[in-house]
UniProtKB/TrEMBL annotation:
Required cofactor names: FAD; (6R)-5,10-methylene-5,6,7,8-tetrahydrofolate
Gene (UniProt): phrB1
Leader sequence segment: none
Keywords: Chromophore, FAD, Flavoprotein
Protein name as annotated: Deoxyribodipyrimidine photo-lyase
Family: Belongs to the DNA photolyase family.
Source organism of the structure: Flavobacterium palustre
Residue ranges constituting the Photolyase/cryptochrome alpha/beta domain according to the UniProt record: 5-134
Superkingdom, natural source: Bacteria
C-alpha cells in the first residue's frame, strides 16, 4: 500500500504557529505538512512527574492543536526516544522533507546531527533554520573571526548589525495554513504522557510596563516584570517581534535580550562551560561544598532575608527576580564557598525559564569564573542589597511571613565570609 508523501515540521523550542521561520518554509514546500512534537524520554525520564515545564509544553501544544483543528489539521504528538520515533515515522509515511529550527545546546546539536543522518539515509531532505535568536553561531565575531568573550563589544557589534536590518523581518504563516496535512491525530492527555498537573504555573507574559523597565527592574517588590523568560525559553513568543518591539520602546530591555544571545554564542563556541569554568585559572579554588549549608540555602533558611525570600519564591513559584538571583548566587559561591555547579543544577531543577546557556553564564558570572564575570573580590552584601532594593521589606515579607516574629540569625557573618572568600580565591587562582 502506497504511503502518503508528506513533509514534517518538527516543533522543539518554538511552540507557536505565528512568525515561525522553519514552519513558514515548511508550509511553502510542495507536500502537505505534518506538525510534530516529540516528548523525548531521554529528557523526561529525569524529571518529576509534576514538572511544571512539561505541563506548560503540553498546554502550549494544546493551544496549537486547537488552531490547527480550525484548518482541518492537527498536531502529531509522540513520546519516546527521538531516534525510535523517527524510525517509526519513516515506516508510516513517505517523508520527503523535514523542517526544523536550530537549537544550539550541545545535546541538541548531537541529537539533530544523528536525526539528520537517519533521515538522509531514508532519502528525506532536512532543512534547519535560525529562529530563536537574531544572530547565531559565528554571525557576531571579532575582526579576526574569533568569538567575543566580553559582553559590551559583543553588544556594540550586535547593535551595529541589527541597525542594518531593523526592523527584523517577521514571517507571516497564516496565509499558508491550507498546506497543513489534513488529519485528526489523537492529542494525548498529560497523564498519557506520564505526567500530572503542577501547582506551579507559567504566567502569561506582559509587556505593558516594559517602557519603564530601566526604572523598576532592580526592585523585586514592584511587580513590573514581563514574565517573558519561560515564553522565550519554549518559543511561545517570537524573538523577532520582541526585539523589534524593544528597539522602539526600551534600550535596557533590548540589552537583556542581547545578553541572552551573548550567552548562547558562548555556550556554542565554548561547550566546556556547561560543566567547567570558562576561566581555567579558577580550577584550583578549594570549595567548602558543605552539604548542610547547601540545604539551608536551597530551602531559604540562611538568616539573610533577601537570600531566603528569593529561594522561597523560587521553590514556591518557579520564578525569581533577576536582582535577587545575583544576590543568592553570590551568597552561595562567595559566602558559603559552594561551587557554582551545585547552584546551577538546583536552578535547572526549579526555574520555569531554565535555559542552559543563560543559567551557566549567569552562575559563572556570579562565581567570577566565567567570561566577563564579576571580579572575584566583589562579594555582594545581602543586607545592603536589601536596603537598596527592598527598603520597606515588602518583598521579603511576602515570602518570609515569620520575618517580624523573631527571624533567625545569619548562618555566617558577612565580614568573615567576605574575607574568607577573597583569601580562598587568591590562594586557588592558578597563575
Amino acid at each position: 500500500m502506497a504511503k502518503n508523501a508528506v513533509s514534517f515540521f518538527w516543533f522543539r523550542r518554538d511552540l507557536r504557529l505565528e512568525d515561525n521561520i522553519g514552519l513558514f518554509y515548511a508550509l511553502k514546500s510542495s507536500n502537505p505538512v505534518i506538525p510534530l512534537f516529540i516528548f523525548d524520554e531521554a529528557i523526561l525520564d529525569s524529571l518529576p512527574k509534576d514538572d511544571a515545564r512539561v505541563a506548560f509544553i503540553h498546554e502550549s501544544l494544546a493551544k496549537i492543536n486547537i488552531q490547527l483543528n480550525e484548518t482541518g489539521s492537527s498536531i502529531l504528538v509522540k513520546k519516546g526516544k527521538t531516534p525510535e520515533v523517527w524510525k517509526n515515522l519513516i515506516q508510516e509515511f513517505d517523508v520527503k522533507e523535514v523542517f526544523f529550527n536550530k537549537d544550539y545546546e550541545p545535546f541538541a546539536i548531537q541529537r539533530d546531527e544523528a536525526i539528520c543522518q537517519l533521515l538522509e539515509s531514508n532519502e528525506s531532505i532536512t532543512y534547519s533554520f535560525k529562529d530563536q535568536v537574531i544572530f547565531e553561531e559565528k554571525e557576531i565575531t571579532k575582526a579576526d573571526g574569533l568569538p567575543y568573550t566580553v559582553y559590551t563589544p559583543y553588544k556594540n557589534k550586535w547593535l551595529e548589525k541589527f541597525n542594518q536590518l531593523k526592523p527584523v523581518r517577521e514571517y507571516e504563516t497564516s496565509e499558508l495554513f491550507s498546506n497543513f496535512y489534513k488529519s485528526d491525530f489523537s492529542f494525548p492527555t498529560l497523564k498519557q504522557i506520564g505526567f500530572e498537573e503542577s501547582a506551579i504555573k507559567v504566567k502569561p507574559h506582559n509587556l505593558t510596563q516594559i517602557a519603564h523597565y530601566h526604572e523598576t527592574r532592580d526592585f523585586p517588590a514592584v511587580d513590573s516584570t514581563s514574565y517573558l523568560s519561560p515564553h522565550l525559553r519554549f518559543g511561545t513568543v517570537s524573538i523577532r517581534k520582541l526585539v523589534n518591539w524593544a528597539a522602539r520602546k526600551n534600550a535596557v530591555f533590548l540589552s537583556e535580550l542581547i545578553w541572552r544571545e551573548f550567552f548562547m554564542q558562548i555556550l556554542f563556541s565554548f561547550p566546556k562551560v556547561m560543566t567547567q569554568n570558562f576561566k581555567s585559572d579558577y580550577d584550583g579554588i578549594q570549595w567548602r561544598n558543605n552539604e548542610e549549608d547547601f540545604k539551608r540555602w536551597c530551602t531559604g533558611n540562611t538568616g539573610y532575608p533577601m537570600v531566603d525570600a528569593g529561594m522561597r519564591q523560587l521553590n514556591e513559584t518557579g520564578y525569581m527576580h533577576n536582582r535577587v538571583r545575583m544576590v543568592v548566587a553570590s551568597f552561595l559561591c562567595k559566602h558559603l564557598l559552594i561551587q557554582w555547579q551545585w547552584g546551577e543544577a538546583y536552578f535547572a531543577e526549579k526555574l520555569l525559564d531554565y535555559d542552559l546557556s543563560a543559567n551557566v553564564g549567569n552562575w559563572q558570572w556570579a562565581a567570577g569564573t566565567g567570561c566577563d564575570a564579576a571580579p572575584y573580590f566583589r562579594v555582594f552584601n545581602p543586607d545592603i542589597q536589601l536596603k537598596k532594593f527592598d527598603e520597606k521589606g515588602i518583598y521579603i515579607r511576602k515570602w518570609i511571613p515569620e520575618f517580624d516574629l523573631g527571624y533567625g540569625q545569619p548562618m555566617v557573618d558577612h565580614a568573615m565570609a567576605r574575607d574568607r572568600a577573597i583569601a580562598t580565591y587568591k590562594a586557588g587562582i592558578l597563575k
